[in-house]
Each structure stands twice: as C-alpha cells, then as structure tokens.
Specification:
The complex is a heterodimer of chains A (188) and B (658). Chain A has eleven helices and two strands, in the order αααααααβααβαα. Chain A is mostly helical and 188 residues long. A two-stranded antiparallel ribbon of chain A has the order 1-2. Chain B is 76% helix and 1% strand. In chain B, helix 7 (127-176) packs antiparallel against helix 9 and helix 15 (387-415) packs parallel to helix 18. The two termini of chain B are 24 Å apart. The chains are: A mainly alpha (188), B mainly alpha (658). Chains A and B meet through helix 1, helix 4, helix 6, helix 7 and helix 8 of A and helix 3, helix 5, helix 9, helix 10 and helix 11 of B.
Chain lengths: 188, 658
C-alpha cells in the first residue's frame, strides 16, 4: 500500500510542525496511528473518532484520566469526547517531550478540573485523589483520610484562601516540581 | 443628573430582568454570589480560555496573547492557533518592515535552536531503552539510568580532552624516539593488577615522560599534561556545581519555605507515561500507600507532641545507645578495612594467592558496604523517627560509610612507604579499584540477583524463596555506587590518565548489566522515589566525591617531589609553568606575576564578598516581597468575597422591598 507518509500533504505537515511541539516523524506516526483508529485511510481530516475508539490506544488504556483527557482535547460541539486528527495532534503536542511547563500545567489543570468550572474545589480534588488511588471501594481512602488530605492540600496550595485552587495557584505548585514535566508525558 | 437617573433605572431594569429569568431558582444569597463571581473579570478570562474554538471569537482572545510567544505554546486548539496566526500575519503586514524582519528573525533563531537541540538530544544513546524502563518502573528508576548516562558522557568528554592534551603530544614525541621492540606477553594477572606490560603502557603516569618541541619552549608535554588535567577537574567542578545548584534552587530553596508536599503528590503524582495496566495499578498502589503514609506521618507528629517526659527520656537513651552502636559498627568496619590493607601489603608466595591479597581491601570494602546499610535500616526502625527521617538517616549513614571507607583506603595509601615510582603505584591502586568495581557489578548481577530471581520463580512455595522475595531496585544505594566509582576515577585520573576511558567502557557495560538486573530480576520498589529532590542528592554526593578527590590530589602533589617518574620527574608540578613564563615578553610576565600575587587575590576576594552580599540581600528582599504579596492576595480575595456578599444582600433587600 506504500508508506502512509505520502498521505499527509506537505504544506499541512509543515503547518502542523509549526503549530505543535511535534517533530515530522512524530506527526507521521500520529497520522498512521490515527488512520488505523479511523479504520479507513486518508479520510477527511475533520472526521471524528469516538472516545471509545480513542481509548483503545495502549498509551491511554490504563490511564485513569483517559476520559478527562479526551474531553479536554475534544473540540466536538456535542461534548462527547470524540477527537479529530487535529485534536489528536493537540493532545500529543501537550504531552510531548518538548512542550513547555506552562502548557503542560495548563492542560493538567483542565484535566483535573472535573466539572469544568475553572477552579479545583473540594469535589474536584476528591475525584482526582480517587483516580490516583483507584476507584473501587477497597482502594479508596477512608472518608476521614480524604477529609484530612483535602484540607492539607488546600492549606498548602490555596494561597488566597478562597477554598479552591485556581489556575495560577496550581501553576505555582507545579512550577516548583521539575518532576512534573517528565511525568506529564505520552509518547506514541 | 438626568444621565445618572437614567443609568440607575437602567441598572434596575437589568436587575429585574435577571431576577425574572431566574425567579424559579432559589432566592438565596449564595445564588447571587456565584452569579457575581461568574461575572468577575478573572473568571471571565478563565472561561474564555476554556471555551472551544468553535464557540469563541478568535479576534477577541488573540488580543491577549503575546506575539513573541510561539504559537505552539498557546493552550488552545489547532484551529484557534490558525486563526491567531492569520491575525498575526495581518498585523505583520501593517507593522513596519524592520519589526516584521525582527520577528521573523526571532522565529528562525528559535527554530534553529530547537533543531540543534533536537539533533543533540538525538545523539544521546539509549532513548528507547530508557523510555521502556520508564514505562515499566516509573520515573525514579529512569533517573538512575539518566544519571548513569550523564556520567558516561562526562567520562567520554574527559577522554577527548585527555587524548588531545596528554596522549597525543607524548605519542608524537615518542615516535621520534627509538622504538622499543621488546614485547613481553600479557599475563591475565596484569590486567587485574595493572603490572607488567601495562605498567609502561599509556595507562599509567610513567609513560608520559618529558619531551618538548625544540622551537617552542612553552609547548612541552608536562605543561600540556597539567593543562589537560586541570581542565578536566575544572570542567567537572563546573558541571557538578551547576547541576547541584539548579536542583537545589528547584527543590529546597522554595520547598522549605512553602511546604507543599501533599499537593505535589496529588497534582504531580500520576506518571502519564505508564502504559502497562499492571504497572498502572501498581502505581495506584504506590500513590495510595504514599498518601496514607504521609497522613500517618502527620498523625505521628501529633503523637510526638503528646509524648510524656518519661517516654522522651527512654527514647533519648535508646537513640543514644543505637547511635553508639552505629558508631561501633562504623569503627569496626573501618578497622577491618585498615587491617585488610595492611595484610594486602605483605607478599604471599603463590601467584593466585598474591592476586587475592592484592584485591583483599576492595573485597572487604565491598562486603562491608553491602552488609552494613541493611543493618542501618534495621537499626533506624527502632529509633522511632518518622519514616522519611528513617530513610534519610539510613542513607546518610551509608553515604558516610562509603565515602569514609574510600577515604581510609586513600589515607593508608598515602601513608604507605613510597616506592621507586610512587605515582604509578597510586595510579595502579585506582586502576585496581575500577576493575574491581566492574567485577563486583558483574558478580552481583549474575551470581546474586539472578539466582535469587531464579529461586523465587522456580520454587515460589519454598520458605527460603518466600523469605527472600524478589529484589527491589534501591535507587539511592545504586547511585551511591556510581558516585563512588566516579570519585575513584577523579582521584586516579592524574596518575592513571586512561582511567576515564576505562570507566567509560565500564559504565557502558554497567548500563546493560543494570538493565538486565532491573528488567529481569527486580520488582518495583515499594516507595516512590522523587526525582527532583533525589537528583539534588545525587549531585551533592558527586560534589562530595569531587572535593575528596581534589584534596587527595593536592596531598599527593605535595607528597611526590621531584625524582619520581612521569612528566614531572625533574621538576615539581608547580614549577612547570615558570619555564614557560620566562620565555614570554616582559609586560606579560609582569601581568602574570601581578595576577598571582597576594594583592590581586585580596582584591578578588573583596569583589567576591561584595557581589555575594548584594545577592544575599537581594534574595532576602525578594523573600519578604513574596511574603507581602501572599498576604495581599489573601486580603484581596477576602475583600472580594466580602464585597460580593454585601452586594448580594443589598440586592436581595431591594428585591424584597419592591
């Protein structure tokens, strides 16, 4: 069938290189993987792949935040978490090696903001911790532990003491942890 | 007057309209509060950033983006980026030629830098292997391998410097001399001990005899030798200090003042690169255990505060006793090492026995370093400290043990009676240590770790296998090994110039050995290992090792006077430069003598003091400013909440009265 490399027009490829943090090889690989998901090759670039299909990717399959990731990067009007190829590139760009701390922390905040209201409140934090520890009843923290943990987090990160962690407070915490850039990473 | 009345009416109408539309919902104060919070400029900005490209107007949002920020660094989707770019292109047409040229230059420069960076990072070996290890074992284990790779690159760099400044001049000089054709056979023992043929080979100091080109007095091989060695040491100091400082700035300088331990663990806890579902559930287990342990630790601190006096006294006695025990253990370990060194200096009869004796000190050191850390970790369990302190205490004791045993070894070497060519003898000892380190790793991988795994996998039900379990890959102790061997390289490089090359080969093999051990024989450790704080620790340990090697070098240079062997046979190391200086013209000579005088040093120190003081005071001022700004933030947010509350109560009252 020939390489999939030829399927992506050259000008589009260079545009993607300019607008994302991905290299040429990474974009081509992404295109290959995405067309495999789509089932048919060289489909129109705006056609969507449903969230269920995207989540079968091994890179996302075991990630507890996989649904949130799809929702954040999806540009669908229906808010069903389906991705176009460009959304997929956005996702890979934010999670790539060379993306900046700024952009990674921004997307991390949006992934952790489960109710999309622009701040991390106690309920978001609870969901976040549940994702981290596992959702089943025997893996969750006890109610008492959860309460103590959330109050500790707010005590530490909520600088303006309004009961929620907003984006700049979140970035403030993240910016002091160089670990973050290396762990907020998905490479195909 | 009219205008104001109209506006008030307008306002009322707006309000009533709003209340009409929301009459169904509750009339509580909170409702209005959230309503107003939503209208605040800050949350509006958030919402705009959150909105999708389809729904928001790109012209509106792109106004707030700085055009110098690359488009790819904007947190919006591709379509929005495209729109912004379109706008920027329009702008570019309207701005002047100079500006547009400058901007495009900026972009090309940035692109070039990225290309070069990408090409350089492509040169680094083992990227895929590291990626795989990261996926299976997480970031912590990867940090160890990255550190190993960093040391390998450092050693390769040394090799290049030494090949250029030390090896080549001597080889060129030698080739003009008469060539010795006698080629004695290489014995297996020579490879391990560095005797026989190796003694007169480029590996050791005595090979690098004095020689110079007739037309340049300055360009003699001792000077080049010194230059190469000094540049190696300076390079290492700069690299290690830079790394340490960067890490320190990241973690401790800020971390101490604003403790945000738990926030880190929650916000940065998930490692998105984990792919394996088993690894993912393992990671979840780690995080849960880690969080539980932290909460437990918090409760522990509360318990500590409630401890009674009697308990305190008992605990202090226990701790003093245990510390005494640790000291005794350390002392006996050092004594054991010392005696093994004394024993090794006696000459046995048989060749193989001799070899064993030669290797006795390294074997003793390795054994002690293998056993004692386990005892230390057991001891620290009884001391009733919190868990982190326990771990750190064990680590600090182990670091002390490792570096001090090396120190004792060096000390006894320095104090042994000098032989005909003391420089070579010293170099030989370091060579031996390096070779032994390699043998130890090999032995450890194939004769300790692998049989253990084999036993556990083959006979999972036997009691021995259950007791042993699979090995955990303990990052700190492995890093300690690396630091130790690197210290040996630094100490020995002056007297055994090819040591960096040997250790580069060793590190390369070590990478594969360790990879085998990790992938095949180890289970992931029960505790997560933080990369950031740990990399500070790694480099701090390196710094300790480096300072130790510099001290040893200084002592050694003083010890070996003229009359030994090697490049500094006829002069001392310090006199080598004076020959060169004498050939220079007078003004240059004067300048050099001024620079090396006390007056200049005094001025230099004074200048450094002034600069340091200004930096310290600036740091303090910044810290105060941070404090004040934080207070101001709290005030602002509480003011905001107060005003919103006031406003909503007033609104409600107005609605009720109507």
């Amino acid at each position: 069938m020939g390489g999939t490399a030829s399927k992506l027009p050259k000008d589009l490829l260079s545009e993607y290189q300019e607008l994302t943090f991905l290299t040429k090889q990474e974009i081509l690989l992404a295109h290959k993987r995405f067309s495999e998901l789509q089932g048919r090759e060289n489909g129109p670039y705006s056609s969507r792949v449903s969230m269920e299909k995207v989540l079968t990717l091994p890179e996302l399959k075991s990630n507890p935040f996989r649904k949130r990731i799809c929702h954040v990067f999806s540009t669908s009007d229906l808010r069903d978490g389906s991705l176009t190829f460009e959304d997929f590139l956005d996702l890979l760009s934010a999670f790539s090696d060379s993306a900046t701390l700024e952009i990674k922390s921004h997307y991390a905040f949006r992934i952790f903001d489960f109710d999309d209201d622009g701040t991390l409140d106690a309920r978001d934090l609870e969901k976040l911790v549940n994702c981290l520890t596992g959702e089943t009843d025997d893996t969750r923290l006890t109610v008492e532990e959860m309460r103590q943990l959330i109050s500790n987090i707010l005590e530490e990160s909520d600088i303006d003491k309004d009961g929620t962690v907003n984006l700049s407070e979140f970035q403030h915490v993240i910016s002091r942890s160089p670990d973050f850039v290396s762990s907020f990473k998905i490479v195909l | 007057m009219m205008d104001r009345a109209e506006r008030t009416a307008d306002f009322h109408r707006l309000l009533s309209e709003e209340s009409c539309s929301s009459d169904v919902s509750s009339d509580s104060c909170e409702y209005y509060q959230t309503e107003i919070f939503g209208l605040l400029p800050s949350s509006q900005a958030h919402r705009r950033a959150h909105a999708d490209a389809v729904t928001h107007d790109p012209a509106e949002s792109s106004g707030s983006w700085d055009p110098s920020v690359p488009l790819r660094a904007l947190p919006v989707c591709l379509q929005a980026k495209r729109d912004i770019r379109e706008r920027q292109h329009l702008q570019r047409r309207s701005i002047g030629n100079w500006d547009s040229w400058r901007r495009s230059q900026q972009t090309t420069r940035r692109r070039l830098k990225e290309h070069v960076g990408g090409a350089l990072s492509g040169l680094l070996p083992w990227r895929h292997t590291l990626h795989k290890i990261e996926g299976q074992f997480g970031v912590g284990v990867k940090a160890y391998f990255v550190f190993l790779r960093y040391l390998l690159c450092l050693n390769l760099l040394y090799c290049v410097i030494i090949a250029g400044s030390v090896l080549t001049p001597t080889l060129v000089n030698r080739s003009s001399d008469d060539q010795k054709t006698k080629q004695p056979t290489l014995d297996y023992k020579d490879i391990f001990v560095g005797s026989g043929v190796l003694e007169n080979s480029p590996v050791f100091h005595s090979f690098y005899t004095r020689g110079s080109w007739v037309d340049f007095e300055c360009l003699n091989s001792p000077l080049l030798f010194l230059l190469g060695m000094i540049s190696v040491l300076f390079l290492s100091i700069i690299m290690v200090v830079r790394r340490t400082v960067v890490g320190y700035k990241h973690s401790w300088l800020t971390g101490n003042r604003f403790s945000s331990n738990l926030s880190y663990k929650v916000f940065c806890g998930w490692d998105f690169s984990v792919q394996d579902s088993q690894a993912a559930s393992l990671k979840q287990n780690f995080i849960r255990n880690e969080l539980k342990m932290d909460l437990e630790e918090q409760k522990f601190h509360e318990r500590v505060q409630r401890r009674s006096l009697r308990l305190w006294v008992r605990l202090i006695f226990l701790r003093v006793f245990l510390n005494f025990l640790v000291l005794v253990l350390l002392g006996s370990a050092f004594a054991l090492i010392y005696y093994s060194i004394v024993l090794s200096q006696k000459k046995g009869l048989h060749k193989t026995l001799n070899l064993m004796l030669e290797y006795l000190p390294p074997i003793t050191m390795a054994t002690v370093n293998y056993i004692l850390p386990y005892i230390f970790s057991k001891v620290s369990e009884f001391e009733d400290y919190s868990l982190t302190i326990q771990l750190n205490l064990t680590l600090i004791r182990s670091i002390f043990l490792k570096l001090a045993s090396l120190g004792i070894y060096l000390f006894s070497l320095i104090h042994s009676d000098p032989s005909a060519c003391g420089e070579n003898a010293f170099g030989k000892e370091m060579y031996k240590l390096t070779v032994f380190n390699f043998l130890e790793c090999f032995f450890n991988a194939f004769f300790v770790a692998y049989p253990r795994t084999f036993l556990v996998e083959r006979f999972p039900s036997s009691s021995l296998a259950q007791m042993l379990g699979k090995k955990e890959f303990e990052i700190p102790f492995n890093v300690l090994d690396l630091v130790n061997s690197q210290t040996v390289t630094w100490v020995g490089v002056f007297y055994c110039p090819l040591l960096p090359a040997i250790s580069a080969v060793r590190l390369m093999t070590l990478f594969y050995l360790k990879k085998f051990t990790v992938v095949r024989c180890c289970v992931p450790a029960q505790r997560m290992f933080r990369t950031a704080s740990s990399s500070v620790l790694f480099h701090f340990m390196l710094l300790l090792g480096l300072s130790m090697s510099v001290v040893t070098l200084v002592v050694n240079i003083n010890r070996f006077g003229p009359g030994g062997c090697g490049p500094f046979k006829d002069t001392t190391v310090l006199n080598v430069t004076s020959v060169c200086v004498k050939t220079l013209p007078d003004p240059v000579q004067n300048t050099i003598s001024y620079i090396s005088s006390e007056a200049f040093a005094f001025a230099l120190i004074l200048a450094e003091v002034v600069i340091l003081t200004s930096y310290v005071s600036r740091g303090r001022a910044n810290r105060k400013a941070i404090e004040r700004l934080k207070d101001m933030l709290v005030m602002c947010s509480s003011d905001k909440r107060f005003l919103v509350k006031q406003h909503s109560t007033i609104t409600r009252r107005q609605l009720r009265t109507r």
